Structures are given as C-alpha cells and as structure tokens.
Amino acid sequence: MRNPMAKSRAFALQAGLAAAAVLAAGGLAGAAAVTRGGDVGWAYNGGQGQDHYSPLAQITKSNVGGLKPVWSFPLEPGALQGQPMVLGRTLYATTPTQRLLALDAVTGALKWEFDPKIPGGQPIRGLTSWSDGKSTRLVFSNQNMIFLIDPATGKPDARFGDGGHIDLRENLRGKAEDNVFFLTSPAQVYRDLIIVGGGRVAETLPASPSPARAYNVRTGKLVWTFHTIPHEGQPGADTWPRDAWKTQGGANAWQGTTIDIKRGIVFINTGSPSEDFYGADRIGSNRFANSTIALDANTGRRLWDFQQVHHDLWDSDSTSAPLLMSVKRNGKTQDIVVATNKHSLVYAFDRVSGKALWPIRETPFPASTVPGEQAWPTQPIPTMPRPLSRTSISPADLTDRSPEAAARARRAYGALAGGGRHFVPLSIDKETLVAPGFAGGPSLFGLAADQSGVLYASSANGSSISGLVDYTKMRAAGIGENAYLTSCSSCHGRDRSGNPPEFPGVADLKGRMTEAEIAEVIRKGRGRMPPFASLPQSTLDNLVSYLTTGADLPGTEPPPLRKPGVGEGAGSSRYVFTGYRSFVDPTGQSYLKGPLATLNAIDMNTGAYIWTVPFTMGGGPLVTGGGLLLISSGPKLQAYDKTNGKLVWETTLPGFGTTPITYMIGGKQYVAVATGSPRGRQAANAGPQKPGAYVVYALPD
Fold first, then answer.
1. How far apart are alpha carbons 305 and 307 in whole angstroms?
2. Which domain holds residue 242?
3. Cα(131)–Cα(147) distance, integer angstroms
4. Which residues contact 464 (CB under 8 A, 6 or more apart)?
5. Per residue in 150-174, pLDDT tens?
6. Has residue 688 been placed in a domain?
7. Strand 53-54 to strand 622-624: parallel, antiparallel, or no bridges (unpaired)?
8. 518-to-181, 188, 506, 508 alpha-carbon distances in Å
9. What are the phi and psi torsion angles at 654 (to 5°)?
10. Structure pTM?
11. What CATH number has the domain bearing residue 417?
12. pLDDT score, position 29
C-alpha cells in the first residue's frame, strides 16, 4: 500500500508548483502565495485578476461527495457578503458587526480580533494584504476607512495615515465629513501602492464623486487620482455639463479593483452617475461613467476606456470587478479583460489595446418622453457572447402556472410601458417594465474563469417596474414628509410600504423602533442604506416625527412649494424615481416563467455558451483545478462539474452562503464559506435574523 503521507506531500508540491506558475504568469493573479511546505492560501476573489480560480485539485468530481465539516466558528446574527482570506496558516474573516477575526485555518481557534468601533454598518466583501518580503500587513477596509493591520497581533500600524488608518472621504470634494463614501469591496495592492478604484456613494443628489486613487502603503499618503467625473480641461469633460465635477456624483467603481501585475495596469468598472434614473442636469454621454477603464498602476494615467452605457438612466452599473483571463485566438494566446453590467451584457477586450474581441454595435433605442431629458440615441451592444439574462419580455414569457396567474400577468403586462425591453427610458405618464430588473442580471459577487478560457457566471432573470413623478406636483404637508419624499421614497415607496424584502416598509416603525434608534439609522446608515449625516437637525427631527406619527413636530411651519428647474445643480432634480418594485403578483410570485436565475459557462475562445442550468442566486463562483465549480445557492453549498453543469454534490449550510474559497495546509485541501442571514429577496419570510458562522470542509484523512 502506498504511503498516504507521501501522497499528500507529493500533491502539496504539485499544487504549490501549479499556484506558483499562475503567480509567475503575472497576467492572472494567483490564488495566493505558496508558502514553505506547499501550503496554498487564498487571496480575495483568487487574486488581483479577480478570476475566482484555484489550481488545487485534491477535491475532485469523484470524491467531493466525501466532504465533511471539520470546524466552524459562530458569528452574531446578521447578513454577510464577504469571503475570508488565508495567509500562511491563518484565516482572516469579517463579521456582521464589522469586526476582523484571525482564526487558525486548521482548527478554527480564535487568535485575535480587531474592532474598529466605527458607528453604522456597510457590507465588507473581503480584505487584501501587502508584503515586501520582510514584513506583511493586512489591508482592511471598513466603511470610509482603510486600516493597515499587523497580521500577527491585529494591531493597526501607527505609521500608516492617522495612527493606522486613512479616511477615504478626504480629497473628494469639500469637507471630508460632508462626503458619503463607503469602500465595500477591498482595495488592491500593487508594489507599494494601495489602489482604491472607487466606493459606494449616494445614488441621489447631493452625492460625492468617486475617483480612483492610490495611496502609499507605508505612509498612507495620496499618490495619484483619476477623476471619473472629469475636471475642466481633462479628457471627457466635454461629455458632461460645464463644471459638472463640482456638483455631480457617482460614476463609481464600487465593485472593486483589478490589476494586471505583470503589465502594471489597473482595471475598474464604473457605475452610473447620480441621479440614477434622471439625467436632465447631466446632458451628454457622461464619459467614464458606466465604463471599463484601464489605468497605469504607477501613475493613474488613463490608457484606454470603453463606455458600456451612454448617459445612464437605468442604474446600469457594472455588476462586478473586471476579470482577467487568457484565451486562444487565431492559434495565439491573448490576455483579455471581461466585464458585465446589469443589462446582462458581456464585454471582452484586449488588456493592452482595449480592442473588443467581437464587434460591438451601436444600437438605436427609444428617446425619452420626460421634458428636458435627452436619452442617448444608441447603446453599445456586443454581438458575442449573447446576454446572460433576458433583455426583453413578450407575452410568451409570462407565467402559465395557473389560468388565474396567467390572466393577472397579462393584465399587469398590458398596463406597463416599454415591453420589458432594456434601454427604454422611464416615463412620467406610465410605469415602465424593465428587463433585466434594476438589481441586474449577473451576480455582484463576481465571475470565474479557468485556465482553458471558460467564463462562469450566475445571473438573475427577473424584471422590475418603475417610473418618474413630477416633484413639483408632490405637495408635502410638512418638512418631514418633504425629506422622506426626496431622500427615502425611491427605496421605501411614496406610501412607505417599501418593496419587501429588498426594501422594507417603514409605515410601522413606531412599533418596532424608538425615535432615537430611527434617528441613529438615518444619521449613520445600515446595510444597503447610506447615512444622511448632512441633514439639518430640525429636518431630521421632523423626518423621525413623520415616520412615527405621519406629521411634523407640533408648531413646525410647512415647507414652501418646491419649484426646481432643470440644471440647477445638486438636489434640483425635478423628476423623482418612484421606487424599486419587482414584476410580481400580490403573493410575491413572479409574473414571468422560470428559470428566474441561471448558472452559465461560456467558452470565451469562441463566445459560445457551453451549458446553462437553472439556479438559485447566492454567492460568487469558485473554480478549481479539480474540475469543480463551487458556489453557494441560497442556504446550499453546491458543487458542479465545470465541464457540463451537472450538480455533483450539495450540502445545507447553517445560513445563507457567500462566495466559497479553498486553500491547502499540510497537504490537505479545505473549502470554507461564510454564512449569515438571508440577503435581498432571499430574506422573504425568513423570520428573525439568525446567527451565522464560518464553516470549513475537507475530505476525511
């Protein structure tokens, strides 16, 4: 009988050499550093290339059914979006309450924890690291801060920034405290630079800008800035109104940053300008918004850019960070960058030249009927690959699960404008049916790619309805209602009923929260909700009163009738988004036939789909050298045969899973996943939030 330890050592060496080869290639950032003894860690999304790939192959299609939990670490209740990082023999992970944990990657024992004690809460999708070969530091983002942490002790490095951290609200516009900016996806590291592609900002005006920036990793000093809303005299300024950079916000790469280490190129995907659904005060194509942008990592100099959506009126952000992969074209290897957006379109470009792999056609779409609005007449539609989700809805797409449901669906469809076609502008006289929905098709947790040039993506197949309303006709009875209509109604509805579960109703807050708790959430934000820290105290007090009593505080003078015009600057939007609503019946069931989500494999060498299977949305994918695609699907962790999409294994998690990772220590391959309370539509009927956990699996010895 062969010595099993010899087999483990041989496999560890093989895996180490494979990971080292990926690292050496430079174009694809590797899964993580290979340490002495053949241990293989895990970096965020597989490395700076964001390919979600690991060469580890001990767990295969034939033995994945033998995976068993080997340890778990309990967490407090709350939703999670992040994935852990494995460096050496330590697993670094975040919690729903924003703490950073260091756990023994083999046993799960707690080594230390760091609590930044920043009020509020925003998603933390992961962390990254830096090393000069002598010392190593963790780069940990929490809301508007980046901390540089000693991985051995969990203590901030006092030499970095202001006693161990920098405030990303600085160097944006005006006073730091007046900016709203959250780094929900981690910064990436290139040489001695921490590079922040952008972050989350307000989606209605006033909103902060979100430039790409680089900081010195030792000092925290700002090194370079690239403005995604160009300043006067900069390229692209002529596609925005004059001085737009002084008032406009957004155009933000909240999805994260991708780096081609070998070439020194930073890639970012940006989102829409603010306002998301109304652009009469930003006439033009709005260059650098909704774009894939390539920058020199050392200087921030623009190398090339491609705009996926001109003059966005649909909140059509790119859904994840750019992904780096290699394909075969005309018998030669070509390094490419791939991007997707909420319209479920897939774009592929040569990394150096920015030339598209397949033709992209400027396609005509309808004009806007909103006074003063100038929708761009065409949009760039890739000829290959085909979209990941439906981009139009016909009567044949409506549900037929019962005669009654079919009749309701036909009536609902007939009452809406747009025909469920993408890139149809919203109107003020009739609500519009949009496909894919405003939450998008592809998952915000990213794509995956393997070494053969195959791209893997999950994508939702739903739709949304909404419109615009003339704000001058929305007569508010008081200051509190006025604040609610301008700042809250787009998510929670004009009648405060919300669009559960993504956006809860707030009509019954008095019975669920105290006035002090409501005020704190408004001031500091929570979950997807940004903070409204700049609200005057009197406005905040009356908003809380309106939310709890339906009226202003006694003795408050009513606000004057607002008469904004087009182009008056921040906060002057005349037409207001009526809110996010899904195309569902009164019971919450979709008016559309399934599947409502799919998991897909696309051969990017040819642009052809290899397979598509029905799916329930969850975390991001992980592809391994063992021939597996691992992904969380609601409360399940699943393994698919990456060659044909066949489900070969699944297990029930203690909560809803995020993106799984894999690593190897001592010749044993592990799979880890964070679990927490349901997110988005998964939260429907889920009841109170339950404790989460980090769960780690391995094959038996």
1. 7
2. 64-466+586-698
3. 15
4. 433, 434, 435, 437, 438, 439, 580, 581, 582, 583
5. 999 999 999 999 999 999 999 999 9
6. yes
7. parallel
8. 21, 35, 10, 12
9. -70, -10
10. 0.89
11. 2.140.10.10
12. 37
